[in-house]
Every structure is written in structure tokens, then in C-alpha cells.
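Lab notebook: predicted structure, single chain.

Context: the supervisor wants predicted structures on file for every construct in the current expression panel, including those that have not yet been purified. This is the next one on the list. No modifications to the sequence; it matches the entry in the shared construct table.
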Amino acid sequence: MTTPQPRLLKALERFHAARPWDHNAHYHRWIMRQVPKRFGAALDIGSGSGDLARLLATRAESVRGLDADATIVARARELTAPAAPVAFTVGDALTDIPSGSYDVITCVAAIHHLPFTEALEEFRRHLAPGGTLVVVGLAAARSTGDRLLGVAAVALNVVMAWIKNRGRRAARPESMTAPTRPATMSFACIVGEAGRVLPGARLRRRVFWRYTLVWHRN
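Prediction complete. Output recorded below exactly as produced.
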């Protein structure tokens, strides 16, 4: 398979730098379709600027957001109305999850920053009986299918950037200011390990370099 020419890659980089959009927020509405209409407590791991936590709060009695970046947590607090049932905490997802159990746990574009198996085990431990875990994650491209989906995503990414920014130049969303790192685990490995830790979990490859995992605890 041929790769894009350097000149084309540079042109794409300039285009997206001028018209950025949040690939993770693209999945927020999908996440809301996976969780109940009303529920008690929710936990958002890697909550960033708090967009998803505030969305969950429209259905939850209480929401906790946890992120390791103190700066983005401070910004999330500033953006959240005082009366909203949302609290943000600075901490590590493996050691600092606020005590208790949660009816909904979400984790968007953060689990590849963590030891994968240990993270799933910790999420499982904090998920209440009958609860729902939803993960939107990144996987390293290893297979031909991964690479083909990535090529398709490049074209779709241009279209979405144009639509979401109405063709105009735009500032980088605050939700995209947190530190990032590339994924190192393949989708095949993710599927295998998730099936071992969370029997019955549903995983799917998605566009825009993402996969999804949904698990319901009995």
C-alpha cells in the first residue's frame, strides 16, 4: 500500500491545524446511547476539560471526573456550573479512584496511557452490579484492516473538519490541550485481553483511529 507523499501530508497538517476538531467528543453522543436514561453515580476516567462528565450529569445523580493533569482539572472546574452534580479530582486512574461503586464508568482516549489489564481490572472493581463500562480507546495499527481504516479516516477527517468548522479557521478546542501519547497495543491484543478480564465485552473498530468497548456487569 502506498503512503501519502510528504507534500500531501504537510498540506493535511496545515489544514487540520487551522480547522481542528475533537475526535473524542465525536463519540460522546454514542456513549450516551450506551448508558441508561437515568442512573445514580458515574465516573469519568481521564475527564479532561469535563465535557463528557457534564453530559453524564444530565442523567446522573452525581458524577466524578478523574484526571492526572492538574491544569486541565482546574479548567474543568471553571467550566462547570456550581450547581451541577459534578466533582473533578486530580489523581491516578489505578490508585486514586474515589471510593465507592459506580453505575456508569466511562474512559475516553485515556486507557492507552495506563497498563491496560490493570486498568480494566480496576474499572471492573468499581463498577456496581448492573453497571455499564464504556471505553473509547486508541489502538496501534498492525493489520491491513487497521491501515485501510486509517486511510479511510484521513478522507473523512478532512470532511468532518470542514463541516464542524464551517470551512473557517478555528481555535483549538480546550478539550484537545491535554498531553497525548501514541497507542502501542494492537486491536487484536486489546480484544483478547478484554475478553479475559471482562467476559462478554463488546468491542468494535471505529473510524477516526478509535475502538469502542462496552461491558455490562451482571
